[in-house]
Amino acid sequence: MESTSIIKLNNVSKSYNGTKALNNCTCEVQRGEIFGLLGPNGAGKTTTLEIIEGLIHADQGSVQVCNGEMPQEAEKVRRRMGIQLQNSGLPNDITAGEAIKLFAAYRKVKVNDGLLNTFKLDKLTTKKYSELSGGQKKSLQLCLALLHDPELVILDEPTAALDVETRNYLHAIIKDLKSRGKTVIISTHDMSEAESLCDRIAILIKGEIAALGTPREITSGNSRELKISIKSRNSTLLDNPDFVRENIASTYKLNDYRVYFSDNATQSILEIIKKIEQANDEIIDFRVERPSLEEKLIELIQKGKKI
Amino acid sequence: MNAFLNHFLYEIRSGLRNKTLLIMYYFFPLFFYFMLSSVLSKVNPFFVNILIPTMISVSVMSGVLLGLPHSIAENRLNGIYKSYRVFGMTTFDILLAPLVSNFLHISLVCIIITFTGKYIFNAPFPAIWGNFIILYLLLIFALMSLGLFIGVIAPNSKLVIVLGQIIFLPSMLVGGVMIPANMLPEPLQVLANAFPTAIYMSIYDKFVNVGNIFAHDVVSMSLLFFLGLISSLVSFYLLKSEGMSISRPKYLFLGSLVLLPAVINVIYLM
Description:
heterodimer, A: 6-stranded mixed β-sheet, 4-stranded antiparallel β-sheet, 10 helices, B: 11 helices
């Protein structure tokens, strides 16, 4: 019987020339979920994905993918995976049609016209790879990754440098994969994309998993932290970070707003209103919301702390 | 089979689309052949006796030492082989089709040389065709495996050219291609035995025209085979292990292993 986890990373570490790219990473990806890998540049996202794909070997730890040990069973396991690399290349002179036919033959599948239509490649089959636009290249790579209807799809920054229309189109394809029971792992810099697409997320900071959970768990988690944004008529608090200190975890200025993060929002709001009244100022906009994923990521990067 | 055929046909088309490969496979060796043969057959009437093996050596070297490593290194360094892997090819799949298409391109040029050599320059046909083919296969196997090794280890495209020339130029100068080996100073004659073309040229007449070789020639031919076998196995291992940390001593050991048959041949024939 197949386990509910399709990927299991256990204490995985990897160094390049003495620099740790991954440090004791442990996590599991469940079947049928969309799992996001987030983090700043150099956080270890691509290294993690390439270890899962069996393209690079971990220095220590164990990696299990689709019930196979990586990298020992890489070639066998990759038959069950659809992979889009961040910087994948194809020969410049290969046409889209030749590439599809070639890899379909190696996958032992017939080319599905529906798949070509889905990726808008049906009219591009005679175009050389070098003549395709960035978006068309990504579409071709994704089409090649999905030719054999894999159960696990790994996409490394698939929407980077794509226009809005293509990006939305790709999001629809990813959601469709999930609806068909496929597992999707996606690495991205786009927080809104991760928030809207992913069931669970791991945030990598300097090669370590700094946060793991659903987007909601990560942004609010067990803490009661809320984000309070205030704009006042006289901007009394705008350039004064010490205007309110009690219960405030952090604060910064954003355009005309002073933004506070508080674990005790009720007390903080009362305190802020009281102080603004004392300063004879007037509140003209006031918002209380859950911190966004992006803000959480920035906070994690700055603090380097773990949830 | 269908996958290999698809890949092979693409590689053949790609070879014909790629200007660098066209030059290395066809233009350079054929131009060199017609130019050199036109001049040397008039200056030195005995040259026609070695015209065919000489020009076959040049063509094979041009294709497998200057053309093949370039395309392998380019594909490897640009992440194309990595893409091939994730899109379903094994390391064997990645290498087989380009090597076979390379072999066909080069062999086509060698066939042109063999037949036009006879009718244009009056060069003698090989007396024993079977031995001619065996020796040719040994030469191309050894050199193609070395070309593969260069393409797999070169860290950048500039070094591909340097490494290719490290074998190509000495082979031309001391490998019996430009200058007959027996006209070289003795230390160079000894050194020349490290190069596959020198082995090929020294054995050609005895094996292909007379059909009678000595024990040391059999040893040299075996070493040519082992040079090819070791180079191709090491290259295959290194390409398969891409992404795995290979220690420097292990890397050096594998490199020495490739050179071993050449070194043995030099020592053996001293």
